Amino acid sequence: MTTTPPSPAAVPAAPPTRRVCVVGAGYVGLTAAACLAHLGHRVRCVEADPSRLAVLRTGGVPIHEPGLAELVSQGLAGGRLSFASEVAPGLDGAEVVLLCVGTPPQPSGEPDLSSLARAARQVARAATRDLVLVVKSTVPPGSCEALELVCADEAPPGVRLRVASSPEFLRESRAVEDFLAPDRVVVGAEDDEVVELVAGLYPPASPVVRCDRRGAELVKYAANTFLAVKVSFANEVARLCDALGTDAATVLAGVGADHRVGPAFLRPGPGYGGSCLPKDVAGFIALGGSLGAPTPLATAAQDQNEMARTGVATRLELALGSLAGRRVAVLGLAFKAGTDDTRDAPGLHLVELLEGVGAEVSTYDPLAAPVRGAGRRASTAAEALVGADAVVVTTPAEEFASLDPRGAAAVMEGAVAFDAAGVLDLASWTAAGFTVYGIGRGAPLGFHPVVWPPLQWTNVGATVPAG
Ligand SMILES: NC(=O)c1ccc[n+]([C@@H]2O[C@H](COP(=O)([O-])OP(=O)(O)OC[C@H]3O[C@@H](n4cnc5c(N)ncnc54)[C@H](O)[C@@H]3O)[C@@H](O)[C@H]2O)c1
Hints:
This protein has about 475 residues and is an alpha/beta fold. It has two domains: about 1-210, 3-Layer(aba) Sandwich (Rossmann fold), CATH 3.40.50.720; about 210-465, NAD(P)-binding Rossmann-like Domain (Rossmann fold), CATH 3.40.50.720. The protein is about 40% helix and about 15% strand. It has 18 helices and 15 strands. Strand 6, helix 6 (about 145-155) and strand 7 form a beta-alpha-beta unit. The longest helix is centred in the middle third of the chain and has 32 residues, at about 215-245. The termini are far apart. Bound molecules: nicotinamide-adenine-dinucleotide (NAD). Nicotinamide-adenine-dinucleotide (NAD) binds near residues 47, 48 and 168. Nicotinamide-adenine-dinucleotide (NAD) binds near residues 28, 118, 122, 137 and 172.
């Protein structure tokens, strides 16, 4: 694997614009399609879901991503972006096809690749010229090689389909920004011509990491597993901080200030969620299992995350005495602030746990659409708080950070605030009469008083027995 720094020799300043087909108009596909059109390519984006397609065809955008609606409408207006419901008309002379369909987890931890295989078959059957298929979906190593065999079986005689891996690393809520200014672009392909074609699709100054296909596929799994390990490590430190009565945010800032560590993802909270981290950690573990290469670190991150997720409900129960019949307002249903995506979100998981033990739950989220069966949905945070015995904040949305504690106290029945996101101002909420619980903020519940030899020695000072 080699890293090529952006240089005029490695990545041409103005690579040729291409005719591109993007299959799947979700967070990854729609972002890629709109950004590639913005970069000058002619893009046809295929979306199988009729309701998503209907929104796109009327100039709307079915997901929340800052800057995406503007790029989509510019692309449509400039004639560089269009949408199709099926692959065959979607190919429309394309020389490269990006596969961006979902690869959701199965109970075994392995991803379900059936949508991807279906999409590749559709492309192969409809191909009328040689094509390069680029897998942007997250897939286990070996998938691109397998897809190439599937394509060879399905393609018309004389048509050659080569499959490359170029996993996507965008963050939801910053998808456009990340696509247009990536930390790196990873391209896995066996031949130079394909690498050049795929790398040339991206913004010209992008640093390119070139590898073989298995390596490229593994980069994505390994990167997400590493991020999950960081989150779980932060929660492990937070647990120690609760027991010690010290502040995890400060401790972790001290840890992350070391450039070898970095501050990102070192934030205590209710566990990681979303459509990627839990799925990709499970996929990484399943991969290790199938290869006979154990992955105990990833398993520990997963276990720690489960503790973080259930820990909020457990500690809330301690704070309230019992959860049955208690009214709890859960603020934050998306998996993080700034997105509408509720897939595998800690907030939703919490609602399920609370309702499972008989609590009455009201919910609010600034961006996420209502989720069927997940509590009583309020249209404002203030409305969710009315009559609640406790409020739990699960994401660091700005709106939650600026909640007025006096207003909250006036409408709530109880005075318990559980700040799992670390955004509430402890002093003003306490002044408004709340007992504020958090993660790694020095637990008011007090897990255990510290009985730790060095502190004992310090406390007894000169009375430490000699010898
Ligand atoms: N969401 C992220 O932040 C993110 C980031 C990096 C990588 N990924 C990976 O990218 C992949 C896609 O993720 P996503 O979040 O965009 O998924 P998504 O579910 O939001 O979008 C997938 C879209 O593909 C469409 N689709 C499925 N089969 C199709 C077909 N045959 N023809 C046309 N459309 C089809 C679906 O209707 C859906 O709209 C996954 O493998 C995911 O792990 C996601």
